[in-house]
Amino acid sequence: MKRRDFLKKAGIGAAAATTATAVNAPFVQARPKVRWKMVTTWPPKLPYLQDAAVYMAKLVEQMSGGQFKIRVYAAGELVPALQTFAAVREGSTIQAGSSVAYYQAGKAPAAQWFAAVPFGLNSLGMSAWFNSGGGLELWEETYAPFGVIPRPGGSTGVQMGGWFNKKIETIDDFKGLKMRIPGLGGKVVSKAGGTVTLVPGGEIFTNMERGVIDATEWVGPLHDKIMGFYKVAKYYYYPGWHEPGAFVEYIFNRKAVEKLPAEYRAILDAACAQAGAWTTQGFNASNGQALRDLIFKKKVKLMRFPDPVLAQLKVYAKETLAEIAAKDKQAKKVNDSYQKFSAIVGTWGEISEKPYYNAIADKHPLSG
Ligand code: CA
Fold first, then answer.
1. Element (H, E) at 305
2. Distance in Å, CA 270 to ligand 1 centroid
3. CA torsion 212→215→218→223, rounded to 10°?
4. pTM of the model
5. Which residues partner with 38 through β-bridges?
6. Distance 59 CA to ligand 1 centre (A)
7. 119: region left, alpha or beta (phi > 0 left; psi from -120 to 50 alpha)
8. Cα(159) to centroid of ligand 1, in Å?
9. What DSSP state is assigned to residue 297?
10. Taking residues 160-183, what's their average pLDDT?
11. Are 127 and 152 in contact (CB under 8 A)?
12. Most buried pick, 113, 312, 315, 357, via CB within 10 A?
C-alpha cells in the first residue's frame, strides 16, 4: 500500500500528514487506558511462577506504552489460592489469573490434560501439542462454557516425585499414605490406596510438620528448597511421574478480553508467550544447582521410585484416564487428541531424545 493510500484509508487529512509527529500523535492518544487485576495461585515472589505473572504484566505495560496495566496479586491477597479461576470467571473486578489447569478439575475434568498427565508428554511435547497439535484450541473449547480464555504459561519441566516420611519400596506402601498431590496424579495415588489431599502451596509445610500428611509433591528442587520441605521430610523421591511436563496457565475473562482493542489482545498473547518461555527456561536453568544444594548442603536423601512401583503406577494412570474419559465427553475428546499426538511425538522421541539421553548418561554424575 502506498503511503498516501494508507493515510487516506486511515481518514487522516493531507494537512495533518505533513510531519511524522502529526501522523503518530493521534494514534498514540487513541490507545485507551486499561487497568486490570490479576490474581494467582502462588505464594508471593515465588520464582518463575509468581515472578512470571509480574513479568507478564510488566511486558503488557511496556508494549502498550504504559496504557494497559495489570496489577498482580499473590494467593490470598485478594482471593484464596484455589479461587483464582472462579474470580476470573466472575470477572467483575478481576480480569486475569495465573494458575494450573488441574485445579479446575472439579468444574471441568478435561482441564487436567492441559496441566499434567501422569506418564504423559514432557514440556517439549506439551508445547508442541498446544501450538501444533490442536491442544490450545481444545483448551479454549474446554474453558469456553465458563467465559474464560486460557494461554499456556510455561512449564516446570519434569517435576520431582515428592517428599516422603515413609519409604516407598513396593506399590503397597501407597496404601494408607496421606499425600498432598493434585490433578490426575492424585487420582492415581488414590487408586493405589493413598489418601489424597489438595492444599495450596502455602499450607503444605505446616501439614507435613504436624504429620497431617505423610508425603507431598510440590514442584522441583528450586521451589522445594525455598519451601523448606527438607526440614520436615526424610526422603526426596524421583522421578515426577505424575507431572512430567506440568504447565502453568494464564487465564482471562472473555468479556474483558472482548472489550480490548485488537492491538492489546495481541500484546497479551505475546506477553504470555514470552513470560511462558522465561518460566520454562528458568526452571531448567535453576533446578540442577538447587538439587546439588539440597543433596550436598542440606543432606537430603535422594531416592528413586523402584521400577516395579513406576510400572504399576503407569497401569493405574492408564485406567484413571480411561475412567474419566468414559464419564465426560470433553475429557474423552481431549484425551483422544492427547494420546494420538503423544504417539506421534513419542515415535520421534524414541529415536531422538531417548537414545541421546542414554548416550550421555555418565556425563553428569551426581557427586560433590
Ligand atoms: Ca506439582
1. none
2. 26
3. 90
4. 0.89
5. 72, 96
6. 27
7. left
8. 7
9. I
10. 97
11. yes
12. 113
pLDDT at position 122: 96
Write the DSSP string, 222-278: HHHHHHTGGGT-SEEEE--TT-TT-EEEEEEEHHHHHTS-HHHHHHHHHHHHHHHHH
Q: Render 24-83 in DSSP notation, one character per residue.
A: HHHHHHHSPPEEEEEEESSPTT-TTTHHHHHHHHHHHHHHTTTSEEEEEE-TTTSS-GGG
The whole-number pLDDT of residue 21 equals 52
Residue 198 buriedness (CB in 10 A; 0-12 / 13-18 / 19+): middle
Q: Which residues, 6 or more positions from 359, have their beta carbon under 8 angstroms from its beta carbon? A: none
Q: Is the pLDDT of residue 241 over 70?
A: yes
pLDDT reading at 18 higher than 90 = no
Q: How far is the CA of 248 from the centre of ligand 1 (A)?
A: 11
Q: How far is the CA of 243 from the centre of ligand 1 (A)?
A: 6
Average pLDDT of the chain to the nearest whole number: 92
Q: Which residue has the cell 531422538?
A: 352
How many angstroms separate the alpha carbon of residue 217 from the centre of ligand 1?
6
SS3 assignment, position 148: strand
Residue 261's pLDDT band, with cuts at 50, 70 and 90, is very high
Q: Using 50, 70 and 90 to split pLDDT, how confident is the model at 123?
A: very high
| pLDDT higher than 50, residue 246 | yes
Mean pLDDT of 206-224: 96
